[in-house]
Amino acid sequence: MQLTRFIQELLYQYECVTIPHFGAFLTRSFGARVNPDGLFYPPRKEVNFNQLLVANDGVLAHYVARKEKISYEYALRLIEKEVSSWKKRLQTQTLRFPGVGEIRLNTEKKIQFTPWGKINFDLKSFGLNAFERKPIEEKIYKPKTLNVMADTNKDDLMFTPEQEQNEKKSPLLRYAAIGVIGIALLGTAYFFSDRYVTEQRVAEQEKAQQQIEKNVQEATFDLGNLSTIDVTVAATPVEEEVILDQVYYSVIAGSFRSLENAEKKVVALEAEGYPAALAQVNPEGIYRVAYGRYASKKEAINMLYFLKYTLEEEAWYLEER
Q: Could you say which of 97, 143, 169, 320 would form a disulfide bridge with 280 (CB–CB 3.0 to 4.6 Å)?
């Protein structure tokens, strides 16, 4: 049983994942920050370990039971067996939790946790990496000097206290204006970089969707040699097609030619906790089953990436118009 992998998956969804009779992994949120050297870091969640939280809250056991398709009581027994093995190994070895961190005993025989820090457990920051801000270089243009005879020398010797005061203030005002413009440019760059990443994800998913639909339409089915049957069909009035104004963004779990099989898949997904539903039928009459249908494109993309890269489930994106 891959208990360490289940713990890592749950840390994306919960702030606390308790391992009965062993301890709990806790996530702590940090906002976006900028280093003095100009590096921008997106919001992130980091992991800590608390050995005092040992009471079973049912989160890990229910998740193991669902993933392994076993009962809740049997899942608890498997967890207790794994924890007993961890405690024995911890006396002489270091416990490693891939993607989370390492646990060892220090010289005082107390548990010491070292996070790896390589994975950001904040789903809202998925795909965002640190980037470096390049300094804005100020260009100073020197005015051209004109060669004038005696009048120029006289003008250079004449000045007033007001002119001297304005010359002292102008550099400060210029630097203040440059600072305001720089802050505005940094905020605009961060906003458009986030928007660019989101648009790139949507564009890639739309390409994948078009390729999948093309493969389904071009697919052929070998039905063998069928005998000719004469069928008399009575003409019935065709119902007017209903056009929906609402646009849905769906995360598709599978496609079925049989409506009965599609409805069975919806029931199975609902039993696992997904807001499953039947999506729009494609032009070939194939019924699509969705993990969920969303009115927001961003929610659908987040759900798709969680299924594919966290739970490693097969899914694809569909925009229903």
A: 320
